[in-house]
Write a structure and sequence with these properties.
about 475 residues, alpha/beta, four-stranded parallel β-sheet, four-stranded antiparallel β-sheet, 15 strands, binds adenosine monophosphate, binds zinc ion
């Protein structure tokens, strides 16, 4: 078997992957800032870490995956200025910061479940780990890495010679091009807040006492402190979107390596590329976002988005458009049809038996699927093997069923399962139309229990029956 190779941002190289502790992979992924609905660009990041985890599980590793919830400290501007995103959302809506965070944490969890992401082993919130963050800041202070200015406690990046390493930054260029408006008193443009003081006269909802005064942690501090709490001083993989490498992750490295005295803190830095809208990054600030609910409202199965995600390598930009998601939905539907016909989700379908020749063909296909993912998680290459099996005209149905079952444990497409019905291009759905007709017939025969059963079953799929003058029609809403 070929070795697993992943691309590591820090060393800018592909290297053979083996966990620090044999058999056990520890990984950390930067999670959502819960001040608004996550968009499908964020979901790409989530799906990437989920595919990585599923692949590692299929290789027989135990995986401890941590995804944090940022519910304090992420400021509107990356330059440690501006309002806290959660506080701003609370002020705008008249809700409490806690309500805002709880609500969008739930939306994020529901979206993850809808696209079949495995729940992380730990899903810690920044606000529930303030002591850990203060502890790290104290270590940094003791090491002489921090200085105090009017609005907070800052990390002096010139004290950490490897500061530019992760993202290959040009610090000299940064210093020269330093914008006016850099926080007064900062020693270097790249210095960042570890602890921010509550502004005089501004009543924050979320603030805590610390040895330096009342305030709140800087955004980067939480990831260093929570990764340490759940994964230890030195762990295997850290993931996140590529936009995080140059500031957020760079600052995480500075804090962790200086505070815990390790190098390298993380063995593999794996970054996903953007999901784009046209040629621009999908992002809230550009106002070009789509959410998973937007797709579902248009009749797209959430797992069709997972299928779409699998069509691009995680290190390539992927362009989203209505046409692209519709064509992925069609591909997904076709694959589902094959999987259903083969009984992939049918537990009673039993263990396959095959002769030597077929066994060799099965082993070869399985090896190629595995090799594609061992090759820096090449999902499109793995999907090509999936389609080869789906269309295979010489393998027995039992062999194809068994292969697709094994592949799906890694892909998470729920192949062969009855799914939320997806209308075809004409907006028609013969299955739903048929059920509606059955329900009408049951009503006519005064079999109301059966009529209700059909209505409830459709409702569970998110299909609502609406009575119109022309008779009953169905409409797609959100799945119950
Ligand atoms: P945020 O909630 O904005 O902190 O982002 C959560 C995760 O989504 C981070 O890992 C980001 O890098 C990632 N992300 C944000 N926008 C995109 C995008 N358009 N494509 C891919 N990943 C993204
Ligand atoms: Zn982070």
């Amino acid at each position: 078997m070929s070795a697993i190779e992943f691309y590591d941002t820090r060393t800018r190289s592909r290297r053979a992957f083996a966990p620090i502790t044999p058999g056990h992979v520890r990984m950390y992924s930067c999670g959502p800032t819960v001040y608004g609905p996550p968009h499908i660009g964020n979901l790409r990041s989530r799906l990437f870490s989920d595919l990585l985890k599923r692949f590692l599980l299929s290789e027989g590793f135990r995986v401890t995956h941590v995804i944090n919830i940022t519910d304090v400290g992420h400021l509107v501007s990356d330059a440690d200025e501006g309002e806290d995103k959660i506080e701003a959302a609370a002020r705008r809506t008249g809700k409490s910061a806690e309500e805002i965070a709880a609500h969008y944490t739930q939306v994020w969890r529901d979206d993850g479940a809808a696209v079949n992401c495995l729940p992380p082993e730990h899903n810690p919130k920044a606000t529930e780990h303030i002591p850990e963050q203060i502890d790290l800041a104290k270590r940094l202070e003791a090491g002489g890495y921090l200085y105090r200015i009017e609005d907070g406690l800052y990390f002096d990046t010139s004290r950490f010679p490897r500061y530019a390493e992760l993202a290959h930054l040009d610090l000299a260029g940064q210093a020269e091009g330093a914008r006016i408006g850099v926080t007064a008193g900062k020693r270097n443009p790249a210095d960042f807040a570890v602890w921010k003081f509550a502004e005089a006269g501004v009543q924050r909802q979320q603030e805590w006492d610390s040895p330096w005064g009342r305030g709140f942690p800087g955004w980067h501090l939480e990831c260093s402190a929570m990764a340490d709490r759940y994964l230890g001083h030195h762990f295997d993989i850290h993931t996140g979107g590529i936009d995080l490498a140059s500031v957020h992750h760079t600052n995480e490295v500075a804090q962790s390596e200086c505070g815990y005295g390790v190098h390298p803190w993380v063995e593999f830095w794996m970054h996903n590329e953007f999901l784009d809208m046209g040629s621009e990054k999908m992002s809230k600030s550009k106002g070009n976002v789509r959410t998973l609910s937007d797709l579902v409202e248009k009749g797209v199965d959430p797992l069709a988005f997972r299928y779409f995600f699998l069509q691009a390598h995680y290190r390539q930009q992927q362009s989203f458009s209505d046409e692209a998601i519709q064509s992925a939905a069609t591909g997904y539907r076709r694959l589902q049809a094959v999987a259903r016909e083969l009984g992939v989700a049918d537990a009673a379908a039993g263990e396959p038996t095959w002769g030597a020749e077929e066994a060799a063909a099965v082993a070869e296909l399985r090896a190629r699927f595995r090799a594609a993912l061992a090759d820096d998680l090449n999902a499109p290459k793995a999907m090509a093997v999936v389609w080869e099996v789906a269309r295979h005209d010489r393998l027995s149905p039992a062999a194809r069923r068994d292969l697709l079952r094994g592949f799906d444990a890694v892909l998470g497409l729920r192949l062969g399962e009855a799914r939320l019905a997806v209308a075809d291009e004409s907006g028609q759905d013969p299955r739903i139309d048929g059920l509606l007709a059955e329900r009408q017939a049951a009503k006519k025969a005064r079999n109301f229990a059966e009529a209700d059963r059909i209505r409830d079953a459709l409702k569970a799929e998110g299909i609502e029956i609406v009575d119109t003058p022309a008779g009953p029609e169905w409409r797609r809403g959100k799945p119950a």
